[in-house]
Amino acid sequence: MENNLLELDKLSVGFLVKKKKINIIHDVSFKIAQHEILAVIGETGCGKSVTGSAILHLLPDNAVVSGSVKYKGEEILNMREREFRKLRGTEIACIPQSPATSLNPVMRAQTQVTECIIKRKDFKGKKSEVKAQAHSIFERLGIGEREIYRRYPCELSGGMCQRVLISMGAITHPSLLVVDEPTKAIDWMLRREVAQLLRELRDSMDCAMLMITHDIDVARSIADRIAVMYAGEIVEIGSPEEIIENPQHPYTKGLIASLPSKGLNVMEGFMPSFELLPSGCRFSDRCRYAFGQCTASEPETENNGQGHLVKCCRWRELETNA
What is the pLDDT of residue 33? Predict the structure, then answer.
């Protein structure tokens, strides 16, 4: 796609545990265009949040990272922390998961939002102007009542707390928002509301989003493209219609078939431990289509010619026989 805002090329992340390196993310590559929402879906523990943390330079000290992450054409993966701080929180912002753990319980809602700007070392503006920005964001997200500004998280509903988190990520008007599990631990009606808020926010701010989620219905409702991750690898990327209605990778087929709307056909087996990954294709030990080549070598990522990417050596054969 033209005008790519973010480009990942063969991003790999491992962690040193007792002098042993455990590889988690392996050769993850994708692009996000300006104004695009890319959703990364997959089972819990597949490496979605680690990918987001690598982009944001929020990995722990024992992380070993390689590959490339470019933002607006500039390499940022190995950028010095002092330099990256000029981007993080301004041009690249984050909406973390779980308001219960991400919000400070002893700080008022307005203070938590305004401090995203005021506490920056390079802040030179007026606090009154920042408060006005916070009020504008609150009103845009449907929480314009003045009394809400002074409330603590425990005095707000789950939906209101989620909106405060979104406000914290949006107040700097970033070009890229990394949104981590925005609908985790909230009810069905609120999930739809949050999803709609994120799409409206993207449109009003003209920003791009990387949305990390296990909620496939939310991904389908707001994403422009969906990337499917399994055991630290991207196995398929396509439009929501392609991924949901015409999945090509065997894992994606199983993931979609397990949805309530598709009959709750539970996939057999479990995602392997990152310390005991199968050889070749990481899904081979659960795949009913696996044969010798699947365990002998890692499959290449192929393009169907229309931007639909699949990492499976048998996907064309399966598509033909579908």
Answer: 96
